[in-house]
Input
Amino acid sequence: MKTVKNICLLFVLAICACGNAVKGGKAEGVENGVKEIAVEQKSQGTVFYDITPEEAFKKAETEGKYVLICFSTKTCGPCKKMKKVVFPTAECGEYLNKRFVTISMDGEDGGIGQEFAKKYEVFIYPTYLVLQPDGFREGMIQGAEFNIPAFLDMFRTILHDK
Output
């Protein structure tokens, strides 16, 4: 019983150390081994930029990428699961980060997210909108897909990727 408690205590300490290791995208105040792991975990999934759609279009044009807008709502369970389970994976990050400037928008927030949802006829959440840097809609994926290869295949179809 004492061993189980010690293991649990070590587990809790490890979680706390990792949670405090990354602040503002930089690892701080940790040993080299933990620091490297924290930075690696932060960078392997899909990068969501905290920028406006206009900034995303400019960035995509400069980098020769598409814009991926991930529409969700605060109450959408499948949206939350996609953000927690699918997008953080290395496989998803490797494919999407090379091809897209990815941003997230709430389609029902009453602001710019709702305006974009209306403009591009987004009625189902989650919806993943693939746009060219000039705003032309290249494709759209509606609904959640938790099978990562199947999810990425939908993007390959839109981009005519093999």
Remarks:
- The two ends are 53 Å apart (CA to CA).
- The first strand starts at residue 22 and ends at 23.
- Residues 76 and 125 are 7 Å apart (CA to CA).
- The beta strands are 22-23, 26-27, 66-72, 100-106, 127-131, 137-142.
